[in-house]
Amino acid sequence: MPSADSAPVSSNAPEAKAPPTAFGKGFVLDAWYFVALSRDVAKGSLKRYEIMGEPVLIGRTNAGAVYGMRDICPHRAAPLSAGRMVDKPGEGETIECPYHGWRFRPDGVCAAIPSLVEEQAFEANRIRVRSYPVVESQGLVFVFMRSDPRSEEAPDHAPPVFPGVVGGEAKLVEWMDFDSHIDHAVVGLMDPAHGPFVHQQWWWRSEHSMHEKAKAFEPREFGFAMVRHAPSSNSRAYKILGGAPATEISFRLPGYRWEHIQVGEKQVLALTCLTPVTETKTRITQIFWSDHWVFNIAKPFLRMGVVAFLKQDGGMVNLQNEGLRYDPALIWIDDADKQAKWYQQLKREWTKSRVEGRGFVNPVKAGVLRWKS
């Protein structure tokens, strides 16, 4: 795994002008995005997703390999995900288009065009559907979104590996689409000051219990972390874990935030994956793993809490959109908005380093942030 300060760069990085890096515009490219849980991609399945406005087919061969390709047949634009997996002699497993039966291998190469007759010498294998690098890790499926869609070079870094993925499959999964650009979704979820006002559950915290906090942060690979600490005294939900829980909260580009809680030898991992569907829609997926005995008992209540939090955050995004329609200048303050500032710096540095063909230099500096919540 490359270090945060010396990630290799593709030799054919685009020479064109850098994509937009202004807040609320453009995307982090040449990066791995969460797309699905492994258990949701069955053998022989063809699943359609949209990432950055692009239709992406994620499938799994009957042999078990996961793959990704653009979900558009180059013949007449029918979605390949509406077709089926077939296995013809001499072709191997292919994806058959539902319109005219054109068949494509999982790497995107056309294997056959059924309408051709023997005298028509047409080289089907010269036709290709764009393919995407796909990696399956820790029960999650990641897709690599390139800055140059025509490139066939292998990704120069691996997807993230998360601590605390314990107890087999994920215990709890919830998702929701936010009507916002991924930038607004990211900073909204990492914002430490909105909780007492947006999330006013009795078991969480309220504005009446606000007090000053001081947390140490340090740079991590392609991101940063609030280093391990005891949860705040007004965060009541942690008390059900018993013992003396210690938590660490991390963020990594392009859109991963996770909280790793340890209580003795037991662990809880709460992972949030942000996937840009379009410029104005972001999918938020929250996934939990744990080997703590109390998790199974508390899971129904935790599910209700997660859904409530997502709905509250989504509702606030909709309110925020009322103001964003007028394209106002936004005011960012220290220290409560420092993580939002770091995210913007990380995004700019990612884009700039790749355009300039050099290693990524993490702009985050270690330090202590203070705010009230």
TrEMBL record:
Domain Rieske: 32-143
A molecular-function term among this protein's GO annotations: dioxygenase activity
Keyword annotations of the record: 2Fe-2S, Dioxygenase, Iron, Iron-sulfur, Metal-binding, Oxidoreductase
Organism domain of life: Bacteria
UniProt cross-references to InterPro entries, sorted A to Z: Cholesterol_7-desaturase, Rieske_2Fe-2S, Rieske_2Fe-2S_sf
Name under which the protein is recorded: Aromatic ring-hydroxylating dioxygenase subunit alpha
Lineage: Bacteria, Pseudomonadati, Pseudomonadota, Alphaproteobacteria, Caulobacterales
